[in-house]
Design goal:
The structure holds 2 protein chains of 2 kinds. Chain A is built from no helices and 11 strands. Chain A has strands at 4-7, 10-14, 19-25, 29-37, 43-49, 52-56, 59-64, 69-74, 83-91, 99-100, 104-109. In chain A, strands 2, 4, 5, 9, 10 and 11 form a 6-stranded mixed beta sheet that branches. In chain A, strands 1-3-8-7-6 form a 5-stranded antiparallel beta sheet, with no helix packed on it. In chain B, the strands form 2 sheets. In chain B, strands 2, 4, 5, 6, 9, 10 and 11 form a 7-stranded mixed beta sheet that branches. Chain B has a 4-stranded antiparallel beta sheet with strand order 1-3-8-7, with no helix packed on it. Chain B is globular, with a radius of gyration of 13 Å. The chains are: A mainly beta, B mainly beta. Chains A and B meet through strand 4, strand 5, strand 9 and strand 10 of A and strand 4, strand 5, strand 9 and strand 10 of B.
């Protein structure tokens, strides 16, 4: 059974800190998404990656296919980064059939 | 380019009724997928449509159904509503080509009383 585990479940940081959120999955995948959800429900796709590393501004996502593990890093965190971060994998051959982690609630205090 | 539009934003229904939710994808996108989000279960995949055909289906009862029209707009229907169907329903669109980025709508919040 395909399971996606995220840690930590909750994370509180001070503005400026370096943040790491982890995601582990149990089956072979074709890609993994990192999503951001703000209060109110809207979801934004931050990254989709199948290997290596991607960077966008202060956000960096990495994936290790052999270890079935991905991380999302936020450098120089800011209160506006406060949101729920969700990873979701696409099992091999699974088209858009995402399996989601439970999410990490990040709070960045000024 | 307009984003993914879901209507309505909020809906209140009573048990036993049925409901239809609508999703208009980004222009040119042929894949529309639907998700249910609840506090207890988190986000779960419902189904995905590509060029009017259901391409994937999650583990939901037959009360949950959907369709896609020739203009790629999609609807999902839930019949015989139960209290546990109260959730945020999200759709996302993409070009449907392998691992392509997803663009989410703002969701429809359904409350069943």
């Amino acid at each position: 059974k395909n399971e996606v585990e995220q840690s930590p479940q909750n994370l509180t940081a001070q503005e400026g800190e370096f943040i790491t959120i982890n995601c582990s999955y149990s089956v072979g995948i074709s890609a993994l998404h990192w999503l951001q959800q703000h209060p109110g429900g809207g979801i934004v796709s931050l990254f989709m990656l199948s290997s290596g590393k991607k960077k966008h501004g202060r956000l960096i996502a990495t994936i290790n296919i052999q270890e079935k593990h991905s991380s999302l890093h936020i450098t120089a965190s800011h209160p506006r980064d406060s949101a729920v971060y969700i990873c979701a994998d696409i099992p091999q051959g699974g088209s858009e059939k995402l399996v989601f982690g439970k999410g990490t609630k990040l709070t960045v205090n000024p | 380019k307009a984003g993914v539009t879901q209507t309505p934003r909020y809906l209140i229904k009573t048990r036993g009724q049925q409901v239809t939710l609508s999703c208009s994808p980004i222009s040119g996108h042929r894949s529309v997928s639907w998700y249910q989000q609840t506090p207890g279960q988190g986000l779960q995949f419902l189904f995905e449509y590509f060029s009017e055909t259901q391409r994937n289906k999650g583990n939901f009862p037959g009360r949950f159904s959907g369709r896609q029209f020739s203009n790629s707009r999609s609807e999902m229907n839930v019949s015989t509503l139960e209290l546990g169907d109260s959730a945020l329903y999200l759709c996302a669109s993409s070009d449907g080509q392998g691992s392509s980025p997803l663009h989410f709508g703002n969701g429809t919040r359904l409350t069943v009383t």
